[in-house]
Amino acid sequence: MSKKISGFSKFTKAEKINWLTENYLNENPNAKSILEQYWNEDDGLQQLHDDFIENTITNFYLPFGVAPNFVINNKTYVLPMVIEESSVVAAASLVGKFWSTRGGFTTEVISTTKIGQIHFMYAGKKADLETYFNKNKTELLASTASITKNMEKRGGGILNIELKDKTDKIANYYQLHVTFETKDSMGANFINSCLEAMANAFKNEEIEVVMSILSNYVPECLVRAEVSCKIEDLGGENPEKFAEKFHQAVQIAEVEPYRAVTHNKGIMNGVDALVLATGNDFRAVEAGVHAYAARSGEYTSLSHCSIENGIFKFWIELPLALGTVGGLTGLHPMAKLSLEMLQKPSARELMQIMAAAGLAQNFAALRALTTKGIQHGHMKMHLQNILNQLGANDTEKVIIEKYFDTKTVSHSAVVKKLEELRAPKVNWVNFLNFESLKNTLTNLNVNTKPLFGKMNGQQMIEHLSFLMKVSNGKVNADFFVEDGKSARRKAFLNTDGELKVGFKAPMLSEEPIPAKFSTIKESINDLFFQIEAFQDHFKTAKNENHPFFGELDYEHWQKFHVKHFTHHFKQFGLV
């Protein structure tokens, strides 16, 4: 059956889901219910989300957290952050508080201009094109008057238009390079509308417009954030050493592209979380930031550090084209709430807040890397995700969190610890406690049916006695076990593992041995006699051979008997 479809966009949401589950999710019986459980119960709110994009079938949730105690230009903020990665919000919170007592973050907007371009082909003389451009420049601005009117009232608009010759790159290729100020709007639709209007006014029979589009590379929409303090105020056991290693880590990111990419990714953990929370375009921000990081021709660090005259200084410069009005910022209820939480910032203020968030994340990552290592803190935060994934209950979480308080977290280590907690606790039989043993054996008679195996109760008692005789030297278990095998097998006796059902020493027959004594009471008495003989025997003996484990000393024989008694007591439901 073909999985192609026509007219999918005209389907209702329910029809889209039915088609999807039938054709691509038919092996998952829960697929439809999973998709539907993420719908909002408020139909109006759900319709709002459905209209953001096309072919919507459900919502995709990401955690929305907050990082308090950010002091930026002497004003205190709480930062809304939308991100799925563990430790990001915690790291931001810790660093925000750390620098709040050391002067906070100092930020400034360096510039806010943005770029749009009209790309066109022209095969004539360059001088003629320049004349045509200069003659029509005023007309190009006039063509956008109806679009720029409201923007100009807010102090924005078109700042400049340049003709750029790119024929050294591509034959006949030129640009109109247009500079914009969009104030509190990110301005993508505004810029593109202006460019298209200008392109229509500019083109003629000799000028072929290829495309008109804004650029997400915004090196002139720049913001700086900085923290600084005396080196001794950094705290810790050796602040001078910490400052030195921190500085070296930044220097490495400045010269090594492989490190710089991960270094800058950590910065964007903070920036993107705020971009998402405020309904801005994180793809545009990411593209512009990373292009800026490579503006010299080699990808390098976005942050920088200096140590001069006993002062530690750490700063960042980022190109950030953001908006606080229009687009998703005015539609998404959570985006609007985020901006309200940030005390309704202008676009310039939002640039500064995001730069501080990026610098904070970078400081947190470098502090971890140069001290305990990045995984120590990250995996502690990731622990909750692992526990939730494994379905740990509240009690198990408390125990495991305490266990890993001083240990390195890894997925396999958490799984192992959880399995240990969930493993049935073995009620090991202390065969040397005669009183307890007698009380337990009173519940056994010759007719007691086993839960597994073929022996009756009395045969089981005499079987225990037989292995006791092997250990106290009365039965010669002359079975050779290679040293290598013996070492591997004896290791099991030192664990909490139980003897598996079906375990049988080589010298034993497949069928139960008939009872030697006439009553079960006599068999029990003999068992106690053999246990006493076992203890007496090892007052002088060193080792006795076991037909499976090889030569065992008193300690290992004792461990074997504990496992052996427990195994057979479980066989008859005695423990």
Automatic annotation (TrEMBL):
This chain belongs to the protein called 3-hydroxy-3-methylglutaryl coenzyme A reductase
The Swiss-Prot or TrEMBL record annotates one GO molecular function as:
hydroxymethylglutaryl-CoA reductase (NADPH) activity
An example Pfam family from this entry, by short name, is DUF1569
Q: Which PANTHER family match?
A: 3-HYDROXY-3-METHYLGLUTARYL-COENZYME A REDUCTASE
Enzyme Commission number: 1.1.1.88
**Keyword NAD annotated:** yes
Q: Which UniProt keywords apply?
A: NAD, Oxidoreductase
Fetch the SUPFAM superfamilies from UniProt.
NAD-binding domain of HMG-CoA reductase, Substrate-binding domain of HMG-CoA reductase
Q: What family is this?
A: Belongs to the HMG-CoA reductase family.
Q: Keyword Oxidoreductase, does the record have it?
A: yes
Q: Which domain of life is it from?
A: Bacteria
Q: Pathway it belongs to?
A: Metabolic intermediate metabolism; (R)-mevalonate degradation; (S)-3-hydroxy-3-methylglutaryl-CoA from (R)-mevalonate: step 1/1
Question: Could you tell me what reaction this enzyme catalyses?
Answer: (R)-mevalonate + 2 NAD(+) + CoA = (3S)-3-hydroxy-3-methylglutaryl-CoA + 2 NADH + 2 H(+)
Q: Name one GO biological process term.
A: coenzyme A metabolic process
